[in-house]
Amino acid sequence: MEPDWPSLPKHVLDSVLEKLVSLSDYLRFSIVCKSWYYVTKDNQIQRAKMTAPMLLICANKRHSWNLYSIVDDKVFDFQLSVPNKRYCGSSFGWLIAVEKNFAITLINPFLRVKGRRKKENSIIRLPSMRLPPSNSERRRWSRQCNHYVFKATMSADPIADAEDCIVVVIYREFYQMAFIRLGKAATWTYIDTGVDRLGTLIHEVTNVEDKFYAVDQKFRLLSFGVTAESNPNVEVVACMTRRPALSKRYLVYSIEKELLMVIRYVAYDGGKRSTVGFLVFELNFDKREWVAKDNLGDDVALFVGDSSSVTVPASKSGCLSNCIYFIHDNDGQGYDIDRRYHLDFGVYNVKSKSISQPYTSHAKSLVEMTDYEPVWVKPTLNL
Amino acid sequence: MSTSTDNNASITQESGPSAAVQDIQKKIVVRTADGEVFNLKEEVAMEIDIIKTFFQEDSISYETVMPLPNVEGWEMVKVIEYCTKHVELKHKVDGYKERKAFQALFVQNLSTKSLLALTNTANYLEVKYLLDFLCQAVSEQIKNKDVDYVRELFGVENDFNDEEYEQVKAEAPWAHENLNNDLH
Q: How far is CA A293 from CA A262, A297, B100, B148, in A?
């Protein structure tokens, strides 16, 4: 090494690091030398916000899942060791699962690389949810425990931001909500459904600052705050006067600070489901109404599935702008579906209203062969 | 054009028919580490924050020759080239393609070592958009290259000990994929 080789100051290295869109390049930067490692470590929280989710695909061998990066167009060599099952949520890089005893566990697949020592804090166990009221129901749900919760989400990273981490679930046959504050409560708080069955048939819950918002079957937007009180008050924030037809819907607080409701239209051919198109609505907080939008945002990409819906900056993450990356997700039928019907995945361009399937053939065949539904997971950088 | 090595050299003037027009455009003079002196058009000089700040001081007159001890002559040439183009494109409505073509040529024959030196200089001189562009160019050199190649390119040594290295590698499972080693 020449002694007069120019070395870059820290903030310049930081700028260079930011321009490495591919996660592989980013992480390789961290192992070059010690000073580069510390620059990466300091940058990782910022980076996590810009990183697109990857697709976790079960390899059908015991506790073996592959990771496909749609941005880098490749399936990684290593595999992750997590149980083979349907996951009811994926948030901040953690999978959310229901166990046979109705306990909820959080699993970080990135801390569980096969062939390496598993990190102890890769599994967080939460208290059990309350059991179904009768023995027969208990037996039935125990067999289908993976579907006891339809969808789950978290408000913050359970390790980096444990203080602010609240887990919210949509559970059981009426799709009601319950939540728990991580590390602060021994039991779940169940949100009572009141008049007009408010608080049932919830499609998705998302967190915006200190409140939670939920969208229900009737396209109403509900909100509630999580306090020490035992029963939070659920309010209706907005309605739709002209409701779209039966459809799936997602709720996301985008990186452009807009609350979006995204509606997904699907068609069935025998048992096979395919997505036909999407509609995007933005909440006008002042007028308390949903306003149709013809784009997601200037530089936004959206990821939807059974995971918590997330948006990322398109250019910085390597995604296509104004596109929705969708995969097959639960229809709420309450049981595992046959693998042949996992195939409703692709990328929807909001502007051109067209659907493409840019997966590599390797990834495509993995999705076609898998016994369990693939999940979007946001990579956690654990430096 | 004559140059002067005095600290308080007066601004030189060209003779000829265009001199009258040129007189209106103020010039700023700087001297680099290797003693080279550069005359910059004021509008270009003001793109370089460290120069702008220097001449904004009340006590400093435009006739002062500003010393730049951390900058080499060849680096100053490149910086002036980039800033001049930037100023030119500011007034153009659709300069995107032209900018891209210019940028490609700008870094074309720069060795990595020179690119790094120029990046440091852009940082020192405080030219934000040039620094941003050069960081991008540096990142292009890192993309898809394996660790050893990057170390060689940047002249850095692996200063982890074996145990530390295994530990940091374990934190980054992505980092050890098979790669094409583009050795130019």
A: 10, 9, 33, 48
**What is the model's pLDDT at position B176?**
66
Query: Complex ipTM, two decimals?
Result: 0.80
Q: A61-119: per-residue pLDDT in tens?
A: 999 999 999 988 889 888 999 999 999 999 999 999 999 889 999 999 998 988 877 77
Task: Report which of B162, B177, B163, B170 is spatially closest to residue A112, judged by C-alpha positions.
Answer: B170
Distance from CA of B159 to the nearest CA of A (A): 6
Question: CB contact, 8 Å: B58 with chain A?
Answer: no
Residue A38 has a pLDDT of: 92
Question: Which chain B residues are Cβ-neighbours of A25 within 8 angstroms?
Answer: 139, 142-144
Contact yes or no for A5 and B154 at CB 8 A:
yes
Q: Is A269 on the interface with B (CB under 8 A)?
A: no
C-beta atoms of A382 and B168 within 8 A: no
Nearest CB to B132: which of A15, A110, A116?
A: A15
What is the Cα–Cα distance from A20 to B57, expressed in whole angstroms?
39
Interatomic CA distance for residues B153 and B168, integer angstroms: 21
pLDDT score recorded for residue B86: 94
Residues in chain A with pLDDT < 50?
A: 1-3
- Report the b/e string of B90-126 with b at 16+ CB within 10 A: eeeeeeeeeeeebbeebbeeeebebbbbbbbbbbebe
Amino acid identity, position A294:
D
Quick one: which of A89, A86, A110 has its CA closest to A379?
A110
B156–A33 CB contact, under 8 Å: yes
Count contacts between A and B (CB, < 8 Å). Answer: 115
Whether the CB of B151 is below 8 Å from some CB of chain A: the reply is yes
d(CA A264, CA A305) in angstroms, rounded, equals: 11
- Please state whether A288 falls in left (phi above 0), alpha (psi between -120 and 50) or beta: left
- Dist CA B175 CA A27 (whole Å): 6
A271 Cβ contact list (under 8 Å, min separation 6):
A337, A338, A340, A341
Q: What is the pLDDT of residue A270?
A: 81
Kindly give the residue spans of alpha helices, DSSP state H, lying in chain B.
Answer: 19-24, 42-45, 49-56, 73-90, 96-108, 112-125, 128-142, 147-154, 162-171
Instruction: Report d(CA B82, CA B104) in Å as an integer.
Output: 12
Q: What is the pLDDT of residues B83-97, one digit of tens each?
A: 999 999 988 888 889
B156 to A78: CB separation less than 8 angstroms, yes or no? no
